[in-house]
């Protein structure tokens, strides 16, 4: 397993500050582009003006009704997936861990589909809790399968891929058998942020805001868990309790994103590696940077999704997968060579 060593609390403050400011500026520009680009393009300077002083123009209506909530959903979901992946990689000491690889995204999506098909009367406010239960169940199944053959990074990843494929097959079967009932879930599970409204922002923001804040408070515990079981216990950590809490927060973050955007893979895999490459293994720095980079990645991917086949739109999940799949293969080969 990959071992992460925490940096001293005063280590490299300038680098951390510069990286955070650069990521925040990148995200701000991405949000501006997300609001500017579309079937009807709006100049960036006009976007900023309408953000500060909305008026009765059609462009103002487009900004505030269509594009701003979509951009916020992309940023919130990207931040949630980025931090979820970082927490999973820290708590498992596995560089291949992420919500998509460990089956959490697929489990959350299946749970929402079951809710829509069999319990259509339930309110939308239950989307995130139901998705959490599905994601947690999938993660437990992956760990059970991987533990049966020996828990290594590659075996855990392979177990996650296998379980995720099985769950996705179950989702497809439900959509075929209950085609009419499943129509209501297709929009939510499309792996896209297209058409998301303020209702989706209000559904996603509280869950992501609270869990991100909690995850930052847990960063020191993640540092200890990343050192390994014996070292963490020697430093006074209650490893079983801490691992359970961190894992639940990671699953809840991923489930919140899936409940609104559908399963979008590889954000949680790639972003933490970039954050650690920039700032080192200290999760007190990695987690907030993962949130900013994850938000920026999904925001820019959504902008690109609108431009590839304009005026039609490509689901943003496809673009992320096109980048993430080669990254996953590269990591797996590097780990295999290191273990050989």
TrEMBL record:
Organism expressing this protein natively: Deinobacterium chartae
Any one of the GO CC terms: plasma membrane
Similarity comment text for this entry: Belongs to the binding-protein-dependent transport system permease family. FecCD subfamily.
PANTHER family, A to Z: FE(3+) DICITRATE TRANSPORT SYSTEM PERMEASE PROTEIN FECC-RELATED, FERRIC ENTEROBACTIN TRANSPORT SYSTEM PERMEASE PROTEIN
InterPro entries in the cross-refs: ABC_BtuC-like, ABC_transptr_permease_BtuC
Membrane topology label: Multi-pass membrane protein
Transport in keyword set: yes
Name of this protein: Iron complex transport system permease protein
GO molecular function: transmembrane transporter activity
Transmembrane segment boundaries: 62-88, 100-119, 125-144, 156-178, 198-219, 244-271, 283-303, 315-332
Subcellular location as annotated: Cell membrane
Chief localization: membrane
Gene Ontology annotations of biological process type: siderophore-iron import into cell
Entry keyword Iron-sulfur: no
Alphabetical UniProt keywords: Cell membrane, Membrane, Transmembrane, Transmembrane helix, Transport
């Amino acid at each position: 397993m990959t071992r992460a060593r925490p940096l001293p609390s005063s280590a490299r403050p300038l680098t951390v500050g510069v990286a955070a400011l650069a990521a925040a500026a990148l995200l701000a520009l991405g949000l501006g582009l997300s609001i500017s680009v579309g079937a009807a393009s709006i100049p960036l300077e006009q976007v900023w003006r309408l953000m500060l002083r909305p008026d009765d123009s059609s462009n103002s209506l487009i900004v505030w009704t269509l594009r701003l909530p979509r951009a916020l959903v992309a940023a919130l979901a990207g931040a949630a997936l980025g931090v979820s992946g970082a927490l999973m990689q820290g708590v498992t000491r596995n560089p291949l861990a992420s919500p998509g690889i460990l089956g959490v995204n697929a489990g959350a999506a299946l749970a929402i589909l079951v809710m829509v098909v069999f319990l259509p009367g339930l309110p939308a406010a239950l989307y995130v809790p139901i998705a959490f239960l599905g994601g947690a169940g999938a993660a437990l199944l992956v760990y059970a399968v991987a533990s049966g053959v020996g828990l290594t990074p590659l075996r855990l990843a392979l177990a996650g891929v296998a379980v995720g494929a099985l769950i996705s097959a179950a989702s497809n079967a439900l959509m075929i058998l209950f085609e009419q009932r499943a129509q209501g879930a297709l929009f939510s599970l499309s792996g896209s942020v297209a058409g998301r409204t303020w209702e989706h922002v209000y559904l996603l923001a509280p869950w992501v805001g609270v869990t991100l804040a909690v995850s930052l408070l847990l960063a020191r515990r993640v540092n200890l868990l990343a050192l390994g079981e014996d070292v963490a216990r020697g430093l006074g950590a209650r490893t079983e309790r801490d691992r359970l809490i961190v894992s639940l927060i990671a699953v809840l973050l991923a489930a919140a994103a899936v409940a609104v955007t559908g399963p979008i893979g590889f954000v949680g895999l790639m972003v933490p590696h970039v954050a650690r490459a920039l700032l080192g293994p200290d999760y007190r720095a990695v987690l907030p940077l993962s949130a900013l980079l994850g938000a920026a990645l999904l925001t820019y991917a959504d902008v690109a999704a609108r431009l590839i086949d304009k005026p039609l739109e490509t689901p943003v999940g496809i673009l992320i997968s096109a980048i993430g799949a080669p990254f996953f293969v590269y990591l797996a080969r590097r780990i295999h060579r290191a273990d050989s």
